[in-house]
Design goal:
Layout lengths: L43 E3 L6 E3 L8 H12 L4 H5 L20 E2 L5 E8 L4 H12 L4 E6 L5 E6 L6 H10 L3 E4 L8 H30 L3 H14 L1
Antiparallel strand pairs: 1-2, 3-4, 4-6, 4-7, 5-6
Helix pairs in contact: 5-6
């Protein structure tokens, strides 16, 4: 039978470090936790579709919606959108209900047509990918989007596809389709950029005025240099 025995501490043993040799060196020491490798710092990257900062390696998606948007673009053969775009796309959101009840114009050939507004278009590549995605949808006979106004004209075969499906494909990319005359939701990123630009412009004007008045009242050179550098950084 296994028998557990406990050694009686010898004289000179340290209760924390354990026994010591005759010359004072420790025989059994507690592990030095300071020597353990430090936890790796968090790596931050951007979502490949909407640009939202995320924790993880490159090409980490911020949400399932952005991953699905990229899959839709890839399956449509429109990958060059990511290479040529000037701005990140908005984060995809759910399409609003009620598209099946929107009044449409019936053409002579039996197709139907409607005009919409697409919000969130930030560059010419946004227009390009939206147009080509709609044009490549089975049943769509015409799809055009204006970058200047955001207005889109759609004409499709009602037997092959419906307006709710088309609106859902646009919303899946991150853009927001709405009817003409409906009030649009503000673009948060544009509002933030407008606020930052306004803040910087006002401060540059105030420091420029201070420099102008300082030349009249003989401002000290150190303050004049400070205002010049601050204006340069804000610009």
């Amino acid at each position: 039978m296994y028998r557990h025995t406990t050694r009686k501490p010898a004289e000179g043993d340290d209760p924390v470090l354990g026994s010591t040799s005759s010359d004072g060196d420790s025989v059994s020491e507690r592990p030095d936790r300071s020597a353990e490798p430090a936890t790796a710092s968090r790596h931050l990257s951007r979502c490949p579709h909407c640009g939202t900062p995320v924790e993880g390696p490159e090409d980490t998606w911020c949400c399932h919606g952005c991953e699905m948007a990229a899959a839709i673009i890839r399956d449509a053969g429109l990958e060059r959108y990511y290479e040529e775009r000037a701005e990140y796309a908005p984060r995809p959101g759910p399409v609003r209900p009620g598209w099946d009840t929107v009044p449409v114009h019936v053409c002579e050939d039996g197709s139907v047509e409607v005009r919409l507004v697409v919000d969130g278009l930030r560059c010419a590549s946004c227009v390009w990918v939206t147009e080509h995605l709609l044009q490549g949808t089975p049943g769509v006979r015409e799809a055009s989007v204006s970058y200047a106004t955001g207005r889109a004209t759609l004409r499709w075969d009602p037997e092959a596809v419906d307006l709710s499906t088309l609106a859902g494909r646009v919303a899946a990319l991150g853009y927001r389709p709405r009817l003409l005359g409906e009030e649009s939701l503000p673009d948060r990123s544009l509002m933030v950029r407008l606020g930052v630009a306004t803040f910087a412009a006002l401060n540059i004007m105030m420091m420029s005025a201070a420099l102008y008045l300082g030349w009249v009242s003989v401002m000290e050179e150190r303050y004049a240099a400070l205002f010049r550098w601050a204006s340069l950084l804000l610009a």
